[in-house]
Protein backbone atom coordinates (compact mmCIF):
# COMPACT_ATOMS: atom_id res chain seq x y z
CA UNK A 1 0.00 0.00 0.00
CA UNK A 2 1.79 3.15 -1.27
CA UNK A 3 1.54 6.59 0.24
CA UNK A 4 0.01 9.24 -2.03
CA UNK A 5 2.30 11.74 -3.78
CA UNK A 6 -0.39 14.22 -4.86
CA UNK A 7 -3.71 15.45 -3.51
CA UNK A 8 -6.74 16.65 -5.45
CA UNK A 9 -8.43 19.74 -4.00
CA UNK A 10 -12.19 19.70 -4.57
CA UNK A 11 -12.32 23.48 -4.20
CA UNK A 12 -15.24 25.74 -3.42
CA UNK A 13 -17.71 24.56 -6.05
CA UNK A 14 -18.18 22.17 -8.94
CA UNK A 15 -20.11 24.79 -10.94
CA UNK A 16 -17.81 26.48 -13.48
CA UNK A 17 -19.87 29.68 -13.60
CA UNK A 18 -19.65 30.05 -9.82
CA UNK A 19 -15.90 29.39 -9.96
CA UNK A 20 -15.40 32.15 -12.55
CA UNK A 21 -17.45 34.53 -10.40
CA UNK A 22 -15.39 33.56 -7.35
CA UNK A 23 -12.19 34.10 -9.32
CA UNK A 24 -13.12 37.70 -10.16
CA UNK A 25 -14.31 38.40 -6.61
CA UNK A 26 -11.26 36.91 -4.87
CA UNK A 27 -8.86 38.53 -7.35
CA UNK A 28 -10.30 41.93 -6.43
CA UNK A 29 -10.04 40.99 -2.73
CA UNK A 30 -6.42 39.86 -3.13
CA UNK A 31 -5.44 43.10 -4.87
CA UNK A 32 -7.20 45.05 -2.10
CA UNK A 33 -5.29 43.02 0.53
CA UNK A 34 -1.96 43.88 -1.08
CA UNK A 35 -2.75 47.56 -1.60
CA UNK A 36 -4.25 48.06 1.86
CA UNK A 37 -1.66 46.19 3.91
CA UNK A 38 1.35 47.53 1.99
CA UNK A 39 0.00 51.06 2.40
CA UNK A 40 -0.41 50.49 6.15
CA UNK A 41 3.14 49.13 6.46
CA UNK A 42 4.65 52.02 4.48
CA UNK A 43 2.64 54.60 6.41
CA UNK A 44 3.86 53.19 9.74
CA UNK A 45 7.46 52.38 8.77
CA UNK A 46 8.28 55.78 7.27
CA UNK A 47 6.56 57.98 9.85
CA UNK A 48 6.80 58.50 13.59
CA UNK A 49 3.97 56.01 14.12
CA UNK A 50 6.56 53.25 14.16
CA UNK A 51 7.69 54.53 17.58
CA UNK A 52 4.28 53.77 19.11
CA UNK A 53 3.78 50.16 20.32
CA UNK A 54 0.24 49.86 18.91
CA UNK A 55 1.43 50.73 15.41
CA UNK A 56 4.58 48.65 15.85
CA UNK A 57 2.33 45.59 16.29
CA UNK A 58 -0.11 46.76 13.60
CA UNK A 59 2.80 46.89 11.15
CA UNK A 60 3.63 43.23 11.81
CA UNK A 61 -0.06 42.29 11.81
CA UNK A 62 -0.31 43.69 8.27
CA UNK A 63 2.83 41.78 7.26
CA UNK A 64 1.49 38.51 8.70
CA UNK A 65 -1.89 39.14 7.00
CA UNK A 66 -0.17 39.61 3.66
CA UNK A 67 1.96 36.48 4.01
CA UNK A 68 -0.93 34.48 5.48
CA UNK A 69 -3.38 35.13 2.66
CA UNK A 70 -0.61 34.67 0.06
CA UNK A 71 -0.19 31.11 1.32
CA UNK A 72 -3.70 30.28 0.14
CA UNK A 73 -5.16 32.83 -2.28
CA UNK A 74 -2.81 32.55 -5.31
CA UNK A 75 -3.31 28.77 -5.36
CA UNK A 76 -7.08 29.25 -4.93
CA UNK A 77 -7.21 31.71 -7.86
CA UNK A 78 -5.25 29.32 -10.08
CA UNK A 79 -7.45 26.36 -9.16
CA UNK A 80 -10.68 28.27 -9.84
CA UNK A 81 -9.74 28.39 -13.53
CA UNK A 82 -8.06 24.96 -13.69
CA UNK A 83 -9.61 21.71 -14.83
CA UNK A 84 -7.74 19.71 -12.20
CA UNK A 85 -6.89 21.15 -8.79
CA UNK A 86 -3.75 19.23 -7.87
CA UNK A 87 -1.21 19.88 -5.13
CA UNK A 88 1.82 17.71 -4.42
CA UNK A 89 2.29 16.05 -1.04
CA UNK A 90 5.33 18.21 -0.22
CA UNK A 91 3.59 21.43 -1.22
CA UNK A 92 0.54 20.41 0.80
CA UNK A 93 2.61 19.85 3.93
CA UNK A 94 4.44 23.15 3.36
CA UNK A 95 1.17 25.02 2.96
CA UNK A 96 -0.18 23.40 6.13
CA UNK A 97 2.88 24.42 8.16
CA UNK A 98 3.11 28.00 6.87
CA UNK A 99 -0.64 28.56 7.20
CA UNK A 100 -0.75 27.53 10.87
CA UNK A 101 2.56 29.26 11.62
CA UNK A 102 1.33 32.63 10.31
CA UNK A 103 -2.18 32.13 11.67
CA UNK A 104 -0.85 31.52 15.17
CA UNK A 105 1.43 34.56 14.90
CA UNK A 106 -1.60 36.66 13.98
CA UNK A 107 -3.53 35.40 17.01
CA UNK A 108 -0.60 36.20 19.31
CA UNK A 109 -0.08 39.66 17.76
CA UNK A 110 -3.77 40.45 18.32
CA UNK A 111 -3.21 39.41 21.94
CA UNK A 112 -0.17 41.69 22.15
CA UNK A 113 -2.21 44.59 20.77
CA UNK A 114 -4.91 43.97 23.38
CA UNK A 115 -2.24 43.94 26.11
CA UNK A 116 -0.86 47.21 24.74
CA UNK A 117 -4.31 48.86 24.90
CA UNK A 118 -4.88 47.48 28.40
CA UNK A 119 -1.62 48.97 29.69
CA UNK A 120 -2.18 52.28 27.86
CA UNK A 121 -5.67 52.74 29.32
CA UNK A 122 -5.53 50.98 32.69
CA UNK A 123 -1.93 51.81 33.65
CA UNK A 124 -1.13 55.02 31.72
CA UNK A 125 1.56 56.26 34.12
CA UNK A 126 3.62 53.08 33.60
CA UNK A 127 2.88 52.71 29.88
CA UNK A 128 6.18 53.99 28.47
CA UNK A 129 8.14 51.89 30.96
CA UNK A 130 6.22 48.67 30.34
CA UNK A 131 5.80 48.99 26.55
CA UNK A 132 9.29 50.14 25.61
CA UNK A 133 10.85 49.07 22.30
CA UNK A 134 12.85 46.23 23.84
CA UNK A 135 9.67 44.83 25.42
CA UNK A 136 7.83 45.10 22.09
CA UNK A 137 10.62 43.20 20.33
CA UNK A 138 10.53 40.53 23.04
CA UNK A 139 6.74 40.16 22.68
CA UNK A 140 7.11 39.86 18.91
CA UNK A 141 9.77 37.16 19.36
CA UNK A 142 7.43 35.26 21.69
CA UNK A 143 4.63 35.53 19.06
CA UNK A 144 6.90 34.03 16.39
CA UNK A 145 8.18 31.29 18.70
CA UNK A 146 4.65 30.38 19.76
CA UNK A 147 3.54 30.27 16.13
CA UNK A 148 6.42 27.99 15.21
CA UNK A 149 5.80 25.57 18.10
CA UNK A 150 2.07 25.43 17.33
CA UNK A 151 2.56 24.77 13.63
CA UNK A 152 5.56 22.45 13.89
CA UNK A 153 3.83 20.15 16.39
CA UNK A 154 0.73 19.72 14.23
CA UNK A 155 2.58 19.45 10.93
CA UNK A 156 5.00 16.89 12.33
CA UNK A 157 2.15 14.67 13.50
CA UNK A 158 0.47 14.89 10.09
CA UNK A 159 3.65 13.84 8.28
CA UNK A 160 3.71 10.59 10.29
CA UNK A 161 0.28 9.60 8.92
CA UNK A 162 -0.22 7.29 5.98
CA UNK A 163 -2.45 8.44 3.11
CA UNK A 164 -3.52 5.52 1.00
CA UNK A 165 -5.81 5.30 -2.02
CA UNK A 166 -8.25 8.16 -1.52
CA UNK A 167 -6.52 11.51 -2.11
CA UNK A 168 -9.35 14.01 -2.63
CA UNK A 169 -9.32 16.88 -0.10
CA UNK A 170 -12.75 18.44 0.32
CA UNK A 171 -11.39 21.95 0.71
CA UNK A 172 -9.57 24.66 -1.28
CA UNK A 173 -6.34 24.36 0.72
CA UNK A 174 -4.53 21.79 2.84
CA UNK A 175 -5.74 21.88 6.43
CA UNK A 176 -5.55 19.53 9.38
CA UNK A 177 -9.08 18.10 9.57
CA UNK A 178 -9.54 17.43 5.81
CA UNK A 179 -6.17 15.65 5.82
CA UNK A 180 -7.03 13.59 8.90
CA UNK A 181 -10.13 12.31 7.10
CA UNK A 182 -7.92 10.87 4.35
CA UNK A 183 -5.53 9.07 6.68
CA UNK A 184 -5.70 5.28 6.72
CA UNK A 185 -4.21 5.06 10.21
CA UNK A 186 -5.77 5.78 13.58
CA UNK A 187 -6.09 9.53 14.18
CA UNK A 188 -7.96 9.63 17.50
CA UNK A 189 -5.04 11.01 19.54
CA UNK A 190 -4.11 13.50 16.85
CA UNK A 191 -7.75 14.66 16.75
CA UNK A 192 -7.61 15.40 20.48
CA UNK A 193 -4.26 17.16 20.10
CA UNK A 194 -5.63 19.40 17.33
CA UNK A 195 -8.64 20.34 19.47
CA UNK A 196 -6.28 21.38 22.28
CA UNK A 197 -3.52 22.89 20.12
CA UNK A 198 -5.83 24.85 17.81
CA UNK A 199 -9.36 25.02 19.16
CA UNK A 200 -8.74 25.28 22.89
CA UNK A 201 -5.79 27.68 22.51
CA UNK A 202 -7.90 29.92 20.27
CA UNK A 203 -10.81 29.78 22.72
CA UNK A 204 -8.66 30.61 25.77
CA UNK A 205 -6.98 33.45 23.85
CA UNK A 206 -10.34 34.81 22.75
CA UNK A 207 -11.70 34.72 26.32
CA UNK A 208 -8.57 36.47 27.64
CA UNK A 209 -8.92 39.15 24.96
CA UNK A 210 -12.57 39.73 25.78
CA UNK A 211 -11.79 39.98 29.51
CA UNK A 212 -9.07 42.55 28.78
CA UNK A 213 -11.50 44.71 26.83
CA UNK A 214 -14.14 44.38 29.55
CA UNK A 215 -11.54 45.66 32.03
CA UNK A 216 -10.75 48.51 29.65
CA UNK A 217 -14.44 49.43 29.39
CA UNK A 218 -14.69 49.34 33.17
CA UNK A 219 -11.69 51.67 33.48
CA UNK A 220 -12.74 54.28 30.90
CA UNK A 221 -16.21 54.78 32.35
CA UNK A 222 -14.77 57.56 34.56
CA UNK A 223 -12.80 59.20 31.72
CA UNK A 224 -13.86 62.56 30.23
CA UNK A 225 -16.18 62.21 27.21
CA UNK A 226 -13.48 62.99 24.61
CA UNK A 227 -10.91 60.57 26.06
CA UNK A 228 -13.58 57.90 26.53
CA UNK A 229 -14.69 58.27 22.90
CA UNK A 230 -11.12 57.91 21.59
CA UNK A 231 -10.46 54.83 23.74
CA UNK A 232 -13.75 53.23 22.69
CA UNK A 233 -13.00 53.93 19.03
CA UNK A 234 -9.57 52.29 19.22
CA UNK A 235 -10.86 49.25 21.10
CA UNK A 236 -13.79 48.84 18.71
CA UNK A 237 -11.32 48.34 15.84
CA UNK A 238 -9.58 45.55 17.75
CA UNK A 239 -12.81 43.81 18.79
CA UNK A 240 -14.13 43.89 15.19
CA UNK A 241 -10.96 42.20 13.91
CA UNK A 242 -11.08 39.67 16.73
CA UNK A 243 -14.64 38.66 15.83
CA UNK A 244 -13.81 38.41 12.10
CA UNK A 245 -10.85 36.17 12.82
CA UNK A 246 -11.68 34.18 15.95
CA UNK A 247 -15.33 33.19 15.38
CA UNK A 248 -14.61 31.25 12.14
CA UNK A 249 -11.46 29.72 13.66
CA UNK A 250 -13.39 28.54 16.73
CA UNK A 251 -16.21 27.17 14.56
CA UNK A 252 -13.77 24.94 12.68
CA UNK A 253 -11.20 23.89 15.28
CA UNK A 254 -13.03 23.68 18.61
CA UNK A 255 -15.05 20.63 17.57
CA UNK A 256 -13.92 17.02 16.90
CA UNK A 257 -12.76 15.87 13.48
CA UNK A 258 -16.00 16.58 11.60
CA UNK A 259 -15.89 18.46 8.31
CA UNK A 260 -18.97 20.42 7.28
CA UNK A 261 -19.83 22.14 3.97
CA UNK A 262 -19.87 25.46 5.86
CA UNK A 263 -16.18 25.05 6.76
CA UNK A 264 -15.06 26.40 3.39
CA UNK A 265 -17.17 29.53 3.78
CA UNK A 266 -15.96 30.13 7.33
CA UNK A 267 -12.35 29.57 6.21
CA UNK A 268 -12.76 32.41 3.70
CA UNK A 269 -13.26 34.79 6.64
CA UNK A 270 -9.82 34.22 8.15
CA UNK A 271 -7.90 33.56 4.93
CA UNK A 272 -9.25 36.40 2.75
CA UNK A 273 -11.94 38.58 4.34
CA UNK A 274 -10.19 39.44 7.66
CA UNK A 275 -6.84 40.32 5.96
CA UNK A 276 -8.76 42.56 3.54
CA UNK A 277 -10.73 44.38 6.23
CA UNK A 278 -7.86 44.85 8.70
CA UNK A 279 -6.39 47.89 6.87
CA UNK A 280 -9.86 49.39 6.38
CA UNK A 281 -10.87 48.94 10.02
CA UNK A 282 -7.63 50.47 11.30
CA UNK A 283 -7.61 53.46 8.92
CA UNK A 284 -11.18 54.58 8.21
CA UNK A 285 -11.72 56.18 11.64
CA UNK A 286 -8.10 56.44 12.77
CA UNK A 287 -6.92 60.03 12.41
CA UNK A 288 -3.24 59.21 13.01
CA UNK A 289 -3.20 56.55 10.28
CA UNK A 290 -5.07 58.78 7.83
CA UNK A 291 -2.63 61.65 8.43
CA UNK A 292 0.34 59.32 8.00
CA UNK A 293 -1.08 58.01 4.72
CA UNK A 294 -1.66 61.57 3.46
CA UNK A 295 1.96 62.44 4.24
CA UNK A 296 3.16 59.38 2.37
CA UNK A 297 0.85 59.95 -0.62
CA UNK A 298 1.76 63.64 -0.94
CA UNK A 299 5.49 63.08 -0.19
CA UNK A 300 5.45 65.48 2.72
CA UNK A 301 7.95 63.52 4.78
CA UNK A 302 11.49 62.39 3.85
CA UNK A 303 11.83 58.62 3.74
CA UNK A 304 14.08 57.26 6.45
CA UNK A 305 16.48 55.55 4.06
CA UNK A 306 17.54 58.94 2.65
CA UNK A 307 19.15 59.82 5.98
CA UNK A 308 21.25 56.68 6.14
CA UNK A 309 24.92 57.67 5.50
Please, could you describe this protein's structure?
With 309 residues, the protein is mostly helical. Helix content is 72%, strand content 3%. It has eleven helices and three strands; from the N terminus they run E-H-H-H-E-H-H-H-E-H-H-H-H-H. The protein has a three-stranded mixed beta sheet with strand order 2-1-3. Helix 1 runs antiparallel to helix 3 (73-80), helix 4 runs antiparallel to helix 6 (133-159) and helix 4 (89-122) packs antiparallel against helix 9 (225-253). The longest helix has 34 residues, at 89-122. The model is unreliable at 303-309 (pLDDT under 50).
Secondary structure blueprint with pairings:
Blueprint: E1 6-9, H1 16-45, H2 53-70, H3 73-80, E2 86-88, H4 89-122, H5 127-130, H6 133-159, E3 168-169, H7 176-182, H8 188-220, H9 225-253, H10 262-283, H11 287-297
Parallel strand pairs: 1-3
Antiparallel strand pairs: 1-2
Helix pairs in contact: 1-2, 1-3, 1-10, 1-11, 2-4, 2-10, 4-6, 4-8, 4-9, 6-8, 8-9, 9-10
Give a quick precis of the structure.
The chain is mostly helical. The protein has helices at residues 16-45, 53-70, 73-80, 89-122, 127-130, 133-159, 176-182, 188-220, 225-253, 262-283, 287-297; strands at 6-9, 86-88, 168-169. The radius of gyration is 21 Å and the shape is globular.
Amino acid sequence: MENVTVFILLGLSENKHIEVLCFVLFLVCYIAIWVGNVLVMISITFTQLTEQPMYFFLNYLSLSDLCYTSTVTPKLLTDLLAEEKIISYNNCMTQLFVLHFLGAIEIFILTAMAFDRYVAICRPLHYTTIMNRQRCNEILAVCCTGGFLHSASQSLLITFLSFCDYNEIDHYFCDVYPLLKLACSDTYRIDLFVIVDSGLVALVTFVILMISYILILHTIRVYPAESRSKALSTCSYHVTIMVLFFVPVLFIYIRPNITLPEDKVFALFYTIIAPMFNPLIYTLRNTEMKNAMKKICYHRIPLQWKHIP
